[in-house]
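User: Predict Stage 0 sporulation protein A homolog's structure from this.
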Amino acid sequence: MTEKQQHFKLSIAQIRHEKVKADGERLRQILMNILSNAIKYTQADGIIELRVNELNSSVFGKSQYEFICADNGIGISREFIPSVFEPFSRAEDPRISKVQGTGLGMAITENIVRMMNGTITVESELGKGSKFTVSIPLEVCMGEEAGNTEPVELSVLSVSERDKKEPVKRAENSKLCGGRILLAEDNEINREIAVELLEMQGMEVTAVEDGKKAKEVFEASAPGDYIAILMDIQMPVLNGYDAASEIRAMNRKDAQEIPIIALTADAFAADVAKARSVGMNDHVAKPLEINRLLEVLQKWI
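Assistant:
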């Protein structure tokens, strides 16, 4: 923060358990994203504060940890607040040279928070600053377990090294980890978000923008290269239904066996039935909920 000569404050309130079990990489990414956002939109000599609280939880063995990032920066207009977590949302602001925008950062942050069964909220006033509050339930280390962890320092919390290696909702022996997914999605923003979320879970992703390219990529692949195909329905050149049908018609065993999951905003019974009729195994509604997508993938792989 020396480049803009900003002032950073760290406030810790009533942390009873300093060691927790969590996905350290994801927690670190959440904090980096909200802090980076504060730095970006706080003027020189401005103040950015990170407050950490431990609250009671109704779940045994867990505490609710609250991470509050507050700044006295340019703030967010009332009209723009509902769009803060939308990809590449933008608001014109005469006080900064560029268009104010969140890029993919805050959209990804919201998804990670949801993956960790948490919540993220924002309060802001134009010209006075913003406050982002992340609340996440974390399993606390108690007794001998607290002393036996190999901590990864996270400012005020220690995350067990072994838990850092176990991303949220992913079993250690899951076939998803390290597997390659073929993704067909014509919307660039949706495609980038899907790729980011899948890669966070340890998967490799080949992403294309239409059904024809999905068919060609699969046709050129060796058997076993892909563990599943995620297929948007409404795409140019070749839609998802036709692409799935043509893949199933290929004269190769894996074309009959590979799970094909429909990604669709239309979840009516008729749409689901049509997806099944062309050989799709299942469907996931858009916008994507990563935990739901993981459940479906694990069901078929």
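The domain at 7-164 is CATH 3.30.565.10 (Heat Shock Protein 90).
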